[in-house]
Design brief:
alpha/beta; Rossmann fold; 5-stranded parallel beta sheet; globular; EC 3.1.-.-; hydrolase activity; SGNH_hydro; SEST-like
């Protein structure tokens, strides 16, 4: 069976999409129906899923996360496939949306949430994220030299410009759109620079934002254990990302199920 390692944050883990992975850390929010599991099931791959909600590029490369080792330590050089969805927490993408929806008009004036909603602060974070993503790509290529390495960018969370995003103020929605667009751009550039591939989930999901007829992501709401987290993929979104990855992988080789 072919080894597949999935790295990334909650946008790959799928918190709130039931059922959770038996035996996985509760804080990881790892769903048994996240895109890594769907891809692995479709191709009969030996999955090692170390995705973890709240992860940053530092948690992939060097930092422990709530007792779990850096994600890259899951790689042993025998992989044929590695997927990576990371960077959003580095630039405060979902955190800024969560802050705005939870704290409303108070968000810009509270110390922590105010920093998340500050455009200049987000721009400084964006200035550094491509270098961090390149470091992830290079490290994965080094540790898994025989693998196809796929960066998978983030599903769309905002409707098109000029369209109201529920109760979010327009300036917050515009900031989120900018952060998302820049994160997509930097992820693609980092993939190209490190010999990795890019799966453009953001581009494929433009018409599947939370206010669309067929949403692949969830908008604002309460954090409840029996449903997908706010500002995260739903089950349809995870299935769509899995389909994108499977399409990019192409038809399996005749001996890939041996």
């Amino acid at each position: 069976m072919t080894r597949y390692v999935a790295l990334g944050s909650s946008m790959a883990a799928g918190p709130g999409i039931r059922p959770t992975v038996a035996g996985s850390p509760f804080a990881a929010g790892r769903s048994a129906r996240n895109y890594p599991h769907l891809v692995a099931n479709a191709r009969n791959l030996d999955l090692v899923d170390v995705t973890f909600s709240g992860a940053t590029t530092a948690h992939v490369l060097a930092d422990r996360q709530l007792g779990s080792p850096p994600q890259i330590e899951a790689l042993n050089g025998l992989e044929s496939l590695v997927t990576i969805t990371i960077g959003g927490n580095d630039v405060g993408y979902v955190p800024l949306l969560s802050a705005a929806s939870l704290f409303g008009p108070l968000a810009p004036i509270l110390p922590v949430t105010g920093a998340l909603l500050n455009g200049a602060t987000r721009e400084r974070a964006l200035d550094h994220v491509e270098g961090a993503l390149r470091a992830v790509g290079a490290a994965v290529r080094e540790r898994a030299p025989h693998a196809r390495v796929l960066f998978v960018d983030y599903l769309t969370l905002m409707p098109p410009a000029g369209t109201r995003a529920g109760r979010l103020p327009d300036h917050v929605a515009d900031l989120a759109r900018h952060v998302a667009a820049e994160l997509e751009r930097h992820t693609a550039a980092a993939a190209a620079a490190t010999g990795c591939e890019i799966v453009r989930a953001g581009q494929a999901s433009r018409d599947h934002h939370p206010w669309s007829a067929r949403p692949w992501t969830v908008g604002a709401g309460l954090l409840l254990p029996w449903r997908p987290w706010p500002w995260h993929p739903n089950a349809a979104g995870m299935a769509a990302v899995a389909d994108l990855i499977l399409a990019q992988l192409g038809e399996p080789e005749a001996n890939s199920r041996d």
